[in-house]
Structure formats: C-alpha cells, structure tokens
C-alpha cells in the first residue's frame, strides 16, 4: 500500500509538472511601453486619466506613461523628437507645427469645445476696468491669445490695451491671478470654477466667442506611428473606451478628475456636468469635426500665425481613429 501511495503521488506530481510546462510557455506577453505627453492635469485631459486609472490602456496591452510638459510647445517638441510617442495639445499648436514642417500628424479629437474663460477679481466689473491691467495668457500666438483678442475686439479693445504676461498652463495662470500679480487670466476647467468659487468671476468666455471649434487633438510622431501603427490604434481605442466610460459612469469619472487635479468634489462634479453634459465635449466615436479643425487654422491665418490655409489632409489622418472604432 505504501508503494502504491508513493506511485500515485509520483504520478500526480508528474501530471502537475506536465500541465505546468505549457502554462509557463503561455505567459501573458509583456505590455508595450508608450509615452503620452500632455500639457498638465486639467479637465480636457480627462480621457487620458480615465484610460490610465480604469485600466483601458492595460486592457489593450499597453503600459502608458503620461508626461506633463507644462506648455503646448514643450508637448509638441517632445512628440516631434519622439521623446514622447504621441500626445495631445491645442489643435492650433499641432496645426502650426505641421505647417512649419514638423513630422507630426493629428489623428483624433480629444476636446471639442474651446473652454477658456477670462476670469477676473471681483474689483474688475467691465472691460473698461480691465483696460491697462495685466492679463496672463499661455502665449501670444496660441488659442488663449486668439480667444482673448476676439473677446477684446467685441468690446472695442485690442491686445495692446493690456499688459500681457505669459504662463503655459491654467494652474500656473490661476496661481498668478490668486496672488494678485495679474488682474485677468485665461483659465480652463476646473481652475475657472475654482476661481469663481473663491469670489472671482468670468468677464467673458471663449465658447461664446470662438464657436464651432476643435480645441484639443491627439497627434503622433509620424515615424513612430508608421512603424507602430497597431500600437497607435490601441491607444486611440483605449481613449475611446475611456470616453464612453465617462459618459456612462459619473461618480468614478468625477473621482478621476479629483485625483488628477486635486479639485474639490463639488467643483469636479460641476465640471463633469458641463463637459459631459452641457457641452458633450468628448467625442465617443472619435469622429473629427473637420470644419471645427479648419476654423482653428482659419483663425490662425487671421491672427498672422499662418500665412495660408492648410488642406485637411495635410494636417489630419483619420485612418487611425477609424481603425480604433472598429
């Protein structure tokens, strides 16, 4: 009986080892590393943070590192030099880079509405009060500048009527406004809502001024995307899943913004209701509003950033998003 018991044990051990050999050979393949550049943590980056936190990148077999580059030009330079494989930034920055010969391409929409709000302290009641004061923009040629100039023109003013200072992201501009160093700031969410909750107010809004707009887009390093097309498609598929999750799951999506930006729960919920509710700012099928994208280029021509209008095919390749939607 002892011999039989030992024999059975030996057979069971051999069976386990035999089963274990193919299992070891069938290990899950390693995740593909990808670097994704953003300007900073704000509401327009929501799908990127959802995809990371909720595991949509991982589900696609990707290990995505999110890098904050602080300014639109820094994001563009990171992707153009392949320090980052792809990223998202203002469509105006991407268009200008492509027109000036950088080897990048827009491949999908991210945030459709121009969200910037000109926020001022309570002491500023009108454009007349703001005239001659300091206003902080991201740059003198980007969407914050174009939007501010359009707002000023509506109110019989021009850029030269203000002292313009520059700071690349909304968090830094909000800090400048809160400190009193400037009297006006172009802010994106949730920082505009934070400012209003702290007694400041909106003097004007970009979404009422620059309509039918494509604010932020995903763009790729052209050489990397050509050599890694399936990976680029997987990134977009994960972002598509994240956007759909955002529309379906309010509270987990709010929690993502709180973690990314440290916004208060009340501000994060208000931001969600605007972005996912009022504006429907994220396109769940990654369909590009080509007219809105060309409107950005048209504004750049009028502003002197570009000398002529580019063709849509020169700046945008929709085949990646189309593949991700299948």
Overall description:
The protein has 326 residues and is α/β, with parallel strands linked by helices. The protein contains 16 helices and 10 strands. Helix 7 links the parallel strand 6 and strand 7. The N and C termini lie far apart (62 Å).
Keywords:
D-Maltodextrin-Binding Protein, domain 2; 50% helix; five-stranded mixed β-sheet; alpha/beta; single chain; 17% strand; 2 domains
What topology emerges from the helices and strands here?
Blueprint: H1 2-25, E1 32-38, H2 46-53, H3 56-59, E2 62-68, H4 72-80, E3 86-90, H5 91-99, E4 104-111, E5 117-120, H6 127-130, E6 134-137, H7 143-154, E7 163-166, H8 170-179, E8 184-187, H9 191-197, E9 201-205, E10 216-221, H10 222-227, H11 229-248, H12 250-261, H13 265-278, H14 290-303, H15 312-315, H16 319-324
Parallel strand pairs: 1-2, 1-3, 6-7, 6-8
Antiparallel strand pairs: 3-10, 4-10, 5-8, 5-9
Uncertain spans: 1-25
Instruction: Determine the number of helices (DSSP H or I, runs of at least 4 residues).
Output: 16
What is the helix fraction of residues, given as a range?
A: 40-55%
Largest sheet: 5 strands, mixed
CATH architecture term of the largest domain: 3-Layer(aba) Sandwich
Shape designation: globular
